[in-house]
TrEMBL record:
Record-given protein name: Superfamily III holin-X
Organism encoding this protein: Saccharomonospora marina XMU15
Record field: compositional bias (Low complexity): 132-143
Disordered, as annotated region: 1-22, 122-143
Superkingdom assignment: Bacteria
Presence of the UniProt keyword Iron in the record: no
Keywords for the protein's UniProt record, in alphabetical order: Membrane, Transmembrane, Transmembrane helix
Signal peptide: none
Residue stretches spanning the membrane: 53-77, 89-109
Keyword Translocase attached: no
Length: 143
């Protein structure tokens, strides 16, 4: 074994010169790190979507409260003001329609936010994992 030289501990051994067990161990470590990174990305994406859904829910709740209080506070005042030029029943109807339109717009905006956040699937992370898996498969076939 005079011609064989053992590598030092701090030297990087080329992949082709490594033993099968060393290769498997290194690939296993890399796959583990990749899986952990992808899980962290997926959790981050899920948190973002949950936050968006929460904001959408808050907007819907706000729309409901707004509709209730605005209706109670302004229906009477607007109805009284309109009753000077219209019959009282028509003044109240016009006021109610206007408030309903505002509540519908706020409710639609909140529901749209919820729709964009659901289903809570980490789509970007899944796409990254799929493309990473395809790249790993190509790399394994090339070796």
């Amino acid at each position: 074994m005079a011609g064989t030289q053992l590598p030092r501990d701090d030297e990087e051994i080329p992949m082709a010169d490594r033993q099968g067990g060393d290769r498997v161990s290194e690939v296993s470590e890399q796959v583990g790190a990749l899986v952990r990174d992808e899980l962290h990305d997926a959790l981050r994406e899920l948190r973002t979507k949950a936050t968006q859904a929460g904001l959408g829910g808050a907007l819907v709740a706000f729309a409901c409260v707004l509709a209730l209080y605005a209706g109670a506070a302004f229906v009477h005042g607007l109805s009284l003001a309109l009753s000077r030029v219209l019959p009282s029943w028509l003044a109240a109807t016009v006021t109610g329609i206007a408030l309903s339109a505002v509540a519908a717009l706020a409710g639609y905006a909140g529901a749209d936010r919820i729709r964009r956040a659901v289903p809570p699937v980490p789509e970007q992370a899944l796409s990254d994992v799929q493309s990473g898996g395809e790249a790993a498969g190509r790399a394994a076939r090339e070796q």
